[in-house]
Amino acid sequence: MLKKEFDLLVQSSIDVAHVLLVSDDGGSTAEIVRVLSGPAVGDIRSRFLRSSDQSTSEALAVRKLLGYRLPINPQRAKAEWYEIFEGDHSLWEGVSRPYRETILAFLVYFQNEILQRPNETFCFSNGSIGNFFFAGSRMFFQSSDAAIFLFSRVSDIPSESLVLPVISTNDRLTLGCELWDGTII
Question: Choosing a second label site near 50 at 20 to 30 A (CA), which of 5, 15, 69, 168?
Fold first, then answer.
């Protein structure tokens, strides 16, 4: 769905189910999958941030942090990642201690997982902090569903909204859904 149509849909109703193919293979998602494996997370992160609360300064600060991309230059990206990871970056301004500690815990877990793979060099170039947070929580919980739940709460999407990932495979894939009234499509 195009961004314009999506924004109109979100404005008209908060009772929305987002069915997303988990097939994003660009940017930091590709690097996360290459080094740490697991499903692609970029599309999920993007949808959460588009649906996130924007009514308070803290909500905007969390959205800005989780939507932030590191510089393209690999050395600058790694240096800036360490500023964020250590809690010293200006992106943390406006983020309260509980949110800060929660987000940092999963960024630390993400960094620890990278360090446990000495034969792989992770490139932080153009990396998405939200993707790193999502990947860290997915690995910690060993569950994409738990990571989706956590990201939905941290980004504060409406509780009536659902984000449903569909794992892409090499096999034939048929999408279907059950509507609230029980109709199966």
Answer: 168
